[in-house]
Specification:
This protein has helices at 29-33, 61-65; strands at residues 16-19, 39-42, 47-50, 71-74. Mean pLDDT is 79; it is low at 80-90. The chain is built from 2 helices and 4 strands; from the N terminus they run βαββαβ. The chain has a two-stranded antiparallel ribbon. The protein has a domain at 16-74: Alpha-Beta Plaits (2-Layer Sandwich). 12% of the residues are buried. It binds iron/sulfur cluster (2 copies).
C-alpha cells in the first residue's frame, strides 16, 4: 500500500431528496448552500432543480437553510456503505 493518505469512499445512490414546490418561495438559499452543485437554479420558474442527487454529500445544509421547510434530505441508511480509511493520519 502506498504511503500517505488513502481514502476509499463508496456511496450508495438510493438516497433521495424530497422537494415541495408549493412551499418554495424562490429565495435561492438552497441553491447557494449546495457546495457540490447538486442543486441548480431554474430562473424561469424561480425554483431549485435537484439535478445530480447521486453527488449529494448528505450534509443537510440545503434542508437547514430552507426556512419554508420545502426540502427533505433522506439518506438511505439501510443500504448505504460509507467507508473511509485514512492511512498515515495516526
Ligand atoms: S431554500 Fe426553500 S424556499 Fe428557498 S428556493 Fe430553496 S426550496 Fe425554495
Ligand atoms: S444535502 Fe448538502 S450536498 Fe446534498 S443537496 Fe443538500 S446541500 Fe447539496
Amino acid at each position: 500500500m502506498p504511503k500517505g493518505r488513502e481514502v476509499i469512499k463508496v456511496i450508495n445512490t438510493n438516497h433521495r431528496i424530497e422537494f415541495d414546490p408549493e412551499k418554495c418561495v424562490g429565495c435561492q438559499q438552497c441553491y447557494k448552500a449546495c457546495f457540490v452543485d447538486v442543486i441548480r437554479w431554474d430562473a424561469e420558474n424561480r425554483k431549485p432543480i435537484f439535478q445530480y442527487v447521486e453527488d449529494c454529500e448528505r450534509c443537510f445544509f440545503c434542508e437547514f437553510m430552507c426556512r419554508r421547510d420545502a426540502i427533505r434530505v433522506i439518506p438511505d441508511y439501510s443500504s448505504e456503505h460509507l467507508m473511509q480509511s485514512f492511512d498515515g493520519c495516526r
